[in-house]
Amino acid sequence: MQIDGLPVTDATKPITIKITNSDVRLSHKKQPGACAAAKCCMRQMGVKAARVHVGRSYLQIGNKWMRYLTSPQLRQEIIAFDRGGTFEPGEYRLTPLQPSHKATGKRYGGEAATPSRKPKKRRSYHIVRAIRSRGTVGAKYDARV
Fold first, then answer.
1. How far is residue 58's CA from residue 66's CA, in Å, rounded to a whole number?
2. Number of other residues whose CB lies within 10 A of the CB of residue 89
């Protein structure tokens, strides 16, 4: 996976970001590279660029992008902000991905379904609309968004 021609690697350590009122004032709705969390990462950590999506966050450190999992608390603030509400300043955590969600594509754990078992009926899930892109694995990143 690459963004702007640079490789994407999975983060190994969690980070905590502290979003301030000035980060919120300078931010833009539905823009992963210009939201309050991205502005905070660039200010606080000194990274070249940051793109914070609903599911994943990407920080450009040197000549590569580090990929983090966006915390549920930050996800809720992003959704509220993108829909016209306010972004609440505070401390938020970006954590490394679980092994089953890493870019290698290898899945760990679980057992293979045997033919004798009945497949479980999958529950449909809710897709949140009217917000920025999700930034998930396998999705092509379009820099024009």
1. 5
2. 16
